[in-house]
Amino acid sequence: VRNSGEFIGFDQYAWVLSQPKFWIALRNTFSIFLLSSVPQLIIAIFIAAMLDQNIRAKTFWRMSVLIPYVMAPVAVALIFSNMFGDQYGVVNTTLQNLGLPAVPWHSDAFASHIAIATMVNFRWTGYNTLILLAAMQAIPREYYEAATVDGAGKIRQFFSITLPSLKPTLIFVIITATIGGLQIFDEPRMYDQYGTGGADNQWLTVTLWLYNVGWGEWNFGRAAALAWILFLIILAIGAINMVVTRSLVRDDGTRDPRTRRERRARARAARERLRTDATAPARDRHDTLRAAAARATAAGEETTR
After folding, report:
1. Does this UniProt record's set of keywords contain Transmembrane (predicted)?
2. Which residues of the chain have pLDDT under 50?
3. Which of 133, 161, 130, 159 is nearest to 145 (CA)?
């Protein structure tokens, strides 16, 4: 093995960045990520808010939303690939029975992104729902009772109490969805029988192309370079999320050092006030006794005269 290789520097990275397929895969990855993450978050918040109410058989419904998450990704992909079949799929058959034109789920890039995003939403909405539901149940019920007394309705309570209280949990869900969305592989891999991302790379993602380069073409050097580029992209987006997170949680005093210093200063000032208030009655009593003693002494002297 020694002296059998040649250091080529950044040639593999330059090759990856010079390939049009990389930019197509990157565009498809972000498109599928946006089509899946945004509706997924909205639906998860809505379902969690419904399950947070006092409904009948709520334990059953809370367990039911987790069923898609525990299903095998391959099984979910196979089910939805048959649903979105071009000729005999359930969706196109229903559309044609209603007199509507069929949708080219495999030949059209945007339609294929919607189909794959639907698979992702089906799998991960229940998982995010339970996380948000746990955060909602941690909100003190006294807030809602006080809002009800003040005349606030359910919608006003949701936007004024629930959503602000979910801020840290929403940040966690968004970060995990971002990392997972940029690494999407199972759904596009199983969307058709070939697993190459479409004839014209309609739904080719970065991780799927990495798999094809590494284990299809057996070029592990280029696959490793592609993996590092994907890692740097995720790292950059994670850094942006961290900056946004620090600004959003600044009011909570949990991550911003300036806020922590201010809280410590306020705590010290409060302790000083408590210490002052505790010693003030003793000083007052001492002054009262001294004044009484002085008056008694003066009265004794007057009596002596």
Report:
1. yes
2. 1, 253-257
3. 161
